[in-house]
Amino acid sequence: MALRLPSALRPLRPLRPLATAKPLAQQARWLAAHVPPVTQSSRGPGTAMVFLNMGGPSTVDEVGDFLSRLFSDADLIPLGRLQNYVGPLISKRRTPKIQAQYQAIGGGSPIRKWSEHQCEEMCKLLDEISPETAPHKPYVAFRYANPLTEETYRRMLADGFGGGRGGRAVAFTQYPQYSCSTTGSSLNELWKWRQRLEGKAAGAPLDGGAADGTIRWSVIDRWPAHPGLVEAFAQNIEAKLLEYPEDRRDKVVLLFSAHSLPMSVVNRGDPYPAEVAATVHAVMHRLNHANPWRLCYQSQVGPQPWLGPQTSTTVEDYIAKGQKDLLLIPIAFTSDHIETLFELDEEVIGGSGHAETVKRVDSLNGSPVFIRALADLAKDHLASGVSCSVQMGLRCPGCKSERCAESKKFFANQRL
Ligand SMILES: C=CC1=C(C)c2cc3[nH]c(cc4nc(cc5[nH]c(cc1n2)c(C)c5CCC(=O)O)C(CCC(=O)O)=C4C)c(C)c3C=C
Ligand code: FES
Ligand SMILES: [Fe+2]
């Protein structure tokens, strides 16, 4: 009688030769015909890339609503318990003056056009250089103008992000330098709509877990000295310097101009002045410190003290000292806006009496070097697995805002 071994001890049956084995090219053809490619539908909706910025009125008729939202924002202009009453009053009084400025720059702000272009082009590059997180879907979320954060969040939900299906989104601030009055305000607004549209009502944990199918958010919250940003600024500066005669070129004074901050915000401990200085230093380092320079601040509004020196008086003072070759460099915004096209071009340069020697560097707008920088930055962020920078977790020493506390906790605790 044959001895029957327990199955675990039985010798393995010799493997059948792979009757179906095919040469490589044939295998590839077979795979292409039988295995569905990894597409949007088999991978989920992909990655939402959401550009955050303040926005601007696209037409003169939108100026009133833009200013009304801006003056109602307690993260930008804290007016206490009277915010919702005083804010609209101030904005109403200011509307005709600001409408005239938008009229003078062609009837509206170009920020929507540039933001949509930059985001779409960045997403195309990202699909190539970060295929593992593709497809990348472009969104713009403005704080005070269309498309507002609420509208964009609703569109993301309709496009298949969140709503029980999860999905990954990156909130990418378009302010390179962090201020609580700008990026901080946009993130607080995003957090507010996240709570309203996917928060308690959807049964989502408030600490930012995404196991329940809500959107998994991460944040690119600052990038003041990113090498690609620095390169884009440096190339635009070099191009403009070529417009000065060669014998005067290295004596042109570079005037970096950033939107100012009220001193109350600076003294609260806002990170913006230090980060603007970081950008300026990195750009000057890239230019081999070939020209003398100063950093000045523009666009002060209202009677309270603001961070200086003011750009307009800096230009006047240098001209009075005999220094007429001045090159203005808008350093805290990545596209044209009323403060470049009207305040710098019309008021500062136009009013200087020396428009042939006081010039302005082009804004980054559609610069391919800049768009490549955005894509590189986003790729590194997506690969890093971090939800935001370490800096984001720290509130200003003088911060009293519960909104800041809650939204920072939410974004810092996202599990990716
Ligand atoms: C880095 C950029 C900006 C910072 C920082 C910033 C802070 C800041 N702004 C105000 C008040 C106003 N800003 C206004 C317009 C405006 N602000 C920025 C940028 C920054 N602001 C831009 C690009 C624009 C123009 C938008 C455009 O489409 O061109 C306005 C409205 C215009 C006006 O009434 O003069 C106000 C008001 C404060 C109080 C502040 C810091 C706390
Ligand atoms: S004001 Fe800066 S963290 Fe709140
Ligand atoms: Fe501003």
From TrEMBL:
It is found in: Mitochondrion inner membrane. The keyword Transcription regulation does not apply. The keyword Lyase applies. Its EC number is 4.98.1.1. Pathway: Porphyrin-containing compound metabolism; protoheme biosynthesis; protoheme from protoporphyrin-IX: step 1/1. Belongs to the ferrochelatase family. This is Ferrochelatase. It comes from Remersonia thermophila.
